[in-house]
Write a structure and sequence with these properties.
Elements (H helix, E strand, L loop, with lengths): L2 H4 L2 E4 L8 E6 L5 E5 L12 H4 L15 E2 L2 E2 L2 H19 L4 E5 L5 H15 L4 E3 L6 H11 L9 H5 L2 E5 L3 H4 L1 H14 L2 E5 L12 E3 L6 H14 L5 H4 L2 E2 L1 H10 L8 H13 L3 E5 L1 H4 L4 H15 L8 E4 L6 H7 L15 H11 L13 H9 L5 E5 L3 H4 L3 H10 L2 E6 L12 E4 L8 E4 L4 E5 L12 H11 L11 H17 L14 H5 L4 E2 L24 E2 L18 E6 L15 H4 L6 E4 L1 H7 L6 E5 L4 E8 L7 E5 L32 E7 L1
Parallel strand pairs: 6-7, 6-14, 8-9, 8-12, 9-10, 11-20, 12-13, 14-15, 15-16, 21-25, 22-24
Antiparallel strand pairs: 1-2, 2-3, 4-5, 4-16, 17-18, 18-19, 21-26, 23-24, 23-26
Helix pairs in contact: 3-20, 4-15, 4-20, 4-21, 5-14, 9-11, 9-12, 9-14, 17-19
This protein binds iron/sulfur cluster (SF4).
The site of iron/sulfur cluster has 14 residues, from helix 2 and helix 8.
């Protein structure tokens, strides 16, 4: 197709954190054709089912087309005046901590940067959090605890170069399909072996050498067993351990951990043999690790084993977190989490706060205390401590744990502002003000994928006439609140340059996130920016971290953490005897506001379902394709029964995608209680006690 060699626009898929490059061409009728970008290092031209169907998911159907205030159409000037006036009044009366922003890993880095600057630098609160809290915040906390900063040590090339890849709590085949394809290519080329650690037998197990159907929540116990075996077999790297603090205590705690993993001794031995006997081992982990009340410990249990053996930051070796969303990493980089500052600087560090305040020319010292993390934030809305919340590109009334309570809290909140591309969502129904935003293929900026590669998202479609870029909406409010100079940008390249310049300060503090080498790029260079893995500074460019044994704690050493495994926060009992695990379907994304528009994608799974072992189903009187009522301590759902031998007995699985708009009784987030990891604040979405009965 000649359009793809002449006029195609290079952009990035808006779904998962693999961050695949796409080529976009408009057809004569104003439609879109999408191909994989052969020059993008993440996917080298390949696309999964979701990426390949992108062209079917754009268009004006269901879009929010104009601002709405109090349920009535409004022009932009009066809508923005109203938001600024109400925010200003609430801040003046109740203080800056009475307002909050709840953001999304769908936002571009430039949008995220402006939101973080406005709240932390100018409004004077750290109440900025994001749906990435539900996705990978345990990894952030685990990285910071082990390395002293939130850096992914490895790159996608490590998957190509590994001899053993361990998937922990990751259905890579469905959730990060292009990385799974890379893994399959490595298997074909060099015989890479695969271990899957997952309570469920998923599509990722089909090509695995070993599947370990672990008891939910027992990952720390299993990796403690591995660490104890590493020590017992003399497989530690004593040279590398000179760069690591806490090895002795971590190994002692690992030896003492006798918690049941649900696996046989033979299975555990096979796992330890393969892991210890293979030097090039990459441990990929995802939501099964992160979405847990001990998620941070799980991350550190994995990292402990890599530090003990020195298998980190070298080709084909390392712990590797794969993020759910396209720009979860960009959000981390700008400080879009309530406990982060900007550019991986720390809110609790006075020198970092002072430097950022000076750089932003902030009107007052930056907040010292972390803001409210997602679950706390909506608790505060429910309790009236948060009186105004601005929700951007996410649907918490459908997706937060205890979603019914969140929806009720938003309906009662004094001011709810929602920026979105979609007119009707569970959250939009709770909004006082709706602001129409540009969507994918319309907006302009950057995203960062799971291996630290910054890529451009570029516009190719005009978008609805009245829709606006998120950074521009946020900057307009900043100016209306009185900070004209600080929010004076008129194009995203200016914001990117400011962000890159600020990262130079982080680099000056010795942090890894330093893209100051991009701070001086021209608008044209920004427009043409090719995928670039950070860091990009005078000192270094791209590559891996930590193979040289240099870390970011004050003594320059990494930390192995002494860990004792804990069961999930809520355990099944006679009233609720089953454990509910939640997750994604292969062909849908989040609440289906885009993928739901493609008939082809919806054909894979047309309605919310419940996977259950046939013997459990028979005992309950559930028939295949019948309906099951599932109840938890917080909610109720009705789901279509699927008999699945890959489920452990006593455990069930349901997908997260359906909402009050698409299947009112299929909102599984209403079932999940907001039990959080104490360090990361990430809720436990994989182990909810439920009762099940036929309907
Ligand atoms: Fe998009 Fe992820 Fe699929 Fe790549 S793997 S095409 S980023 S959904």
């Amino acid at each position: 197709d000649p359009r793809f060699t002449t006029t195609a626009v290079r952009s990035t898929c808006p779904y998962c954190g693999v961050g695949c490059g796409v080529l976009l061409a408009r057809d004569d009728a104003g439609g879109l054709t999408v191909r994989g970008d052969p020059d993008h290092p993440a996917n080298r031209g390949a696309l999964c089912s979701k990426g390949a169907a992108l062209a079917e998911t754009v268009g004006l159907g269901g879009r929010l087309l104009a601002p709405r205030v109090g349920g009535r159409a409004a022009d932009w000037e009066s809508a923005l005046d109203h938001v600024a006036w109400r925010l200003g009044a609430i801040i003046a009366r109740h203080g800056p901590d009475s307002v909050a922003f709840y953001l999304s890993g769908q936002m571009l880095t430039e949008d995220y940067y402006v939101a973080n600057k406005l709240m932390k630098g100018f409004i004077g609160s750290a109440n900025v959090d994001t749906n990435s809290r539900l996705c990978m915040s345990s990894t952030v906390a685990g990285h910071r605890r082990a390395f002293g900063t939130d850096t992914v040590p490895g790159t996608y090339e490590d998957i190509d170069e590994a001899d053993l890849v361990v998937l922990v709590g990751s259905n890579l085949a469905w959730c990060h399909p292009i990385l799974h394809r890379r893994l399959m290519a490595a298997r074909a080329a060099r015989g890479t072996r695969i271990i899957v650690i997952d309570p469920r037998r998923t599509a990722s197990c089909e090509d695995a050498d070993l599947h370990l159907p672990i008891r939910p929540g027992a990952d720390v116990a299993l990796f403690n067993r591995l660490l104890a075996e590493i020590a017992a077999r003399g497989a530690t790297d004593t040279g590398f351990l000179a760069h690591v603090e806490g090895a002795e205590a971590a190994i002692a705690a690992a030896r003492a951990d006798r918690a049941d993993t649900g696996l046989s001794e033979a299975q555990i031995r096979a796992f330890c043999d393969m892991w210890i006997d293979t030097t090039r081992v990459v441990t990929i982990f995802s939501q099964g690790v992160n979405q847990s009340s001990s998620g941070t410990d799980k991350v550190n249990a994995i990292i402990n084993c890599h530090l003990a053996t020195g298998r980190i930051g070298r080709p084909g070796m390392g712990p590797f977190s794969v993020t759910g969303q396209p720009n979860a990493m960009g959000g981390r980089e700008v400080g879009g989490l309530a406990n982060m500052l900007a550019c991986h600087m720390a809110l609790e560090n006075p020198a970092h706060r002072t430097a950022v305040a000076r750089f932003w020319n902030a009107p007052a010292p930056l907040p010292e205390r972390p803001g409210l993390k997602a679950v706390e934030m909506f608790d505060a809305v429910a309790e009236g401590r948060i009186r105004a919340i601005w929700i951007i590109h996410t649907n918490p009334a459908a997706t937060m744990p205890d979603a019914d309570r969140v929806r009720a809290a938003l309906k009662a909140c004094e001011l709810v502002v929602v920026s979105d591309i979609t007119a009707q969502t569970d959250t939009a129904e709770c909004a006082d003000v709706l602001l129409p935003a540009l969507g994918w293929a319309e907006k302009d900026g950057t995203v960062t994928n799971s291996d630290r590669t910054i890529s451009r998202q570029r516009p190719v479609l005009p978008g609805p006439r009245l829709a606006r870029a998120d950074w521009a909406i946020l900057a307009d409010i900043g100016r209306r609140l009185g900070w004209r100079d600080a929010f004076a940008w008129d194009r995203p390249a200016q914001i990117f340059r400011e962000h890159a310049a600020l990262s130079g300060i982080a680099g000056g503090f010795g942090l890894d996130f330093d893209i100051s080498g991009l701070a001086g790029i021209s608008d044209a260079e920004y427009d043409a920016l090719a995928p670039t893995r950070w860091p990009v500074s005078a000192a270094r460019r791209g590559g891996r971290f930590y193979g040289d044994g240099r870390f970011h704690h004050a003594d320059g050493r990494a930390r192995m953490v002494a860990l004792t495994s804990r069961p999930p926060a809520d355990m099944p009992d006679a009233e609720r005897p089953f454990v509910l695990n939640t997750g994604r379907a292969r062909d849908h994304w989040h609440t289906m506001t885009r993928t739901g528009r493609s008939a082809r994608l919806s054909a894979h799974m047309a309605e919310p379902w419940l996977d259950i072992h046939p013997k459990d189903a028979a005992r309950l009187g559930l028939a295949a394709a019948g309906l099951a009522e599932v109840t938890s301590a917080t909610g109720r759902a009705v789901l279509r029964v699927r008999l699945n031998n890959g489920q452990r007995r006593g455990e069930v699985f349901a997908p997260i995608h359906w909402t009050g708009q698409t299947a009112p009784t299929g909102r599984v987030s209403a079932l999940v209680a907001g039990r959080c990891d104490p360090l990361s604040g990430q809720p436990e979405s994989k182990a909810t006690p439920v009762a099940i009965r036929p309907l």
